[in-house]
Amino acid sequence: MRRIRFALTIVALALPAAPPLPAQVPLAATETLRRIFASRDFAPERFGPARWIENGAAYTTVEPSTSVPGASDIVRYETATGARSVLVSARQLIPSGDTTALDFDDYVWSADRNELLLFTNTRRVWRQNTRGDYWVLDRRSGALKKLGGEAPEATLMYAKFSPGGDRVAYVRQGDLYVERVADGKITRLTTGADSLHVNGMTDWVYEEEFDLRDGFRWSPDGTKLAYWHFDMTGVRTFTLINNTDSLYPYTIPIQYPKAGTPNSAVTAGVVGADGGPTTWLQVDGDPRDNYLPRMEWAGPKELVLQRMNRLQNTNRVLLADAASGAVRTVLTERDSAWLDVVDDLQWLAGGTKFLWTSERDGWRHVYLVSRDGRTVQPVTPGPFDVLLVYAVDTVGGWLYYAAAPDNATQRNVYRSRLDGRGKPERVSPVAQVGVHRYVISPDARWAFHFYAAFDTPPTTELVGLPGSQVVRTLVTNVPLKAAVASLITRPTEFFKVPLPDGATLDGWMIRPRDFDSTRTYPVLMYVYGEPAGTTVTQGWGGAGELWHHMIADLGYIVASVDNRGTPAPKGRAWRKVVYGQIGVLSSREQADAVRALTRSRPYLDSTRVAIWGWSGGGSSTLQALFRYPDVYQ
After folding, report:
1. Is residue 626 packed enough to be buried (19+ CB in 10 Å), middle (13-18) or exposed (0-12)?
2. Could you give the domains of the chain?
3. What is the pLDDT of residues 582-629, one digit of tens each?
């Protein structure tokens, strides 16, 4: 109901001064809001969670159980033929002494698939459900055991199998533990956790700024674990007030460093899986004024880390000796504005080279770097940005990635030779205009292909690579598409709008179903406008998109424009021009776009323009209203 009230409030604020709210919003619109936000009328059918197994020859997914109502089976499909078999039935997931099968959020196989790790009874920590209970099913014996011993309910985090599958490591109340699967023996690896000190997990800054939550990594040989330690002493407490979730409001204290105040002191260490002292990595510099946003094993004896300064304009790639803690720098990236942490680092050629993404030539590209950092070879040269690395086909010598070289509002899949020769080859179907996402099998022969367009809900297919031939359709969302067709009767227009300084912005516009170009319409602009996200992408917008169509049918034109500084695939200069001007440049370009649109389209009423956004879009909305009251009125 809160989402419906919020949506009604936005509609009311967008309307000119008029009678009270019930007279402003038609009953039909209220019912549409209920259907969008408080029913499953527009809920998409989803695929998975799926896991590739047997190097891509098969995969597993979760399906409703045929034997236990309301529960789930884990099913195996042979990729090529579609032959189906139940690997784990819901009956196997009923704990001893209980009558109900486990309701799990996620699952992970051990390397040999003899054990299954299940994440259940989950609780939200900041943005995601990362705390809960973990169970292990031994498929050979049928034994189903809850991990954690006498741990309180829902207190385990980030559990994962050792490479050999014989042990599981997890975080419990801020400390790191290892539990032996066979007999449940628990070894505590760290001590000293409290409200200001944690091991194997991260603080709020690392989750919010670097998308890092899980704070430990098994070594490839299963003998050691590398982990982050956070010391939050000295970080001031910010008190949040929650007055929406209960009858009485309550406060939530959080360690929240504001600009110029102390950060957490973050260190990284290595501890034996059987316990013992920690070997701390000897990373130089003040741990409160530098970040360690990424750490992975680089073979059984070394770790690779990314170390960023607090300004986040220098990123050093470090190799650390797990036994001694000695650290050396192998690569340094610098930028006059800022750098993003690199998530595409992968080791190739037996650990002698690694993949790295960089904007050093003005575009975000993938490079192949020697282990010592002395050789940096481009893999994806050209005037376009690589958005995401999907997979590496080491046998065929191909890199699969997401890019949008021809239209920044789309997302397509390409592949390039790992040696950098030749031109990129498009993999996603040319005829399907919109957003494509691939989950590629380990052998790079198959992929789960997720496709959607702005007014079209997603379809999921199993395809063969590299030609994307459809093997079978996994999710059609036909009922959802029929329901959407009742709301979206006029397709969304994508357009370009020129600015006075010569820049051109992408945008979209939704018109009422009874649109008449001889009339004038009030305008509602939807904005984000900051470096963390775009709004103008030709993908399915879900409930938010349907809500915008509903508003349009109340007699509005709804539009959105991506100003410079948003992370559109238009090159480094486009994204970084906003440095030192967040809120200034974005609000100016949004206002210039509104002026250009109302001048060129007589049906847009320049005297009735509203604007709204969420999170960074809320900040952009305030900047727009205060800086350009002549535009938004």
Report:
1. exposed
2. 189-343 (2.140.10.30), 488-627 (3.40.50.1820)
3. 999 999 999 999 999 999 999 999 999 999 999 999 999 999 999 999
